[in-house]
């Protein structure tokens, strides 16, 4: 057999964790990322040096995103995606597919976790709701959101005799009607937001399991 020295570690396949001083059940894989769903990504401009997979809450800590005060979205939001830094737990040793080991002490950035963000273009949700509530009968809400024709029509008909103003107020409050350019409302990042869910042919459906 092979003589074990104090620093010897049993060989493991490339890309797997070399565990050390971790709670039972803790694990992580690292190396070149394969899929955005399974592994962290690097934002543009950051060299692809060390990359660690997203794991359980016991293996890494990801920072909260830095929020832009003007847009209320994560800083550097591009193509509906932003990135936050994640720090693997102390005493984790990763070996990538090239055989290089990375020793983490808890203060190094192991990977960048992609998070979703929205495209905004200066339209405030609070302003839109306020205009619809108080000046909707003049079409101010539609003018603000970029619908001048509907705004003028509401102005000439006094909000379609009040009925159109009420309908618009409900639609804007529920975020069904948004800016004409397709962007999203500016809403407090940690505030109340509505998320529209839909199912398409690409939606992953988990098989129902029965006890």
UniProtKB/TrEMBL annotation:
Gene Ontology cellular component list: membrane
BP GO annotations: apoptotic signaling pathway
This protein's record includes keyword Membrane: yes
Domain TM2: 122-170
Localization of this protein: Membrane
TM segment ranges: 123-140, 152-172
Record-level Gene Ontology MF annotations: amyloid-beta binding; G protein-coupled receptor activity
Membrane topology: Multi-pass membrane protein
Keyword Transmembrane helix part of the UniProt annotation: yes
Domain of life: Eukaryota
Keyword annotations: Glycoprotein, Membrane, Signal, Transmembrane, Transmembrane helix
Family membership noted in the UniProt record: Belongs to the TM2 family.
PANTHER family (alphabetical): BETA-AMYLOID BINDING PROTEIN-RELATED, TM2 DOMAIN-CONTAINING PROTEIN 1
Protein name: TM2 domain containing 1
Lineage of the species this protein comes from: Eukaryota, Metazoa, Chordata, Craniata, Vertebrata
Gene: TM2D1
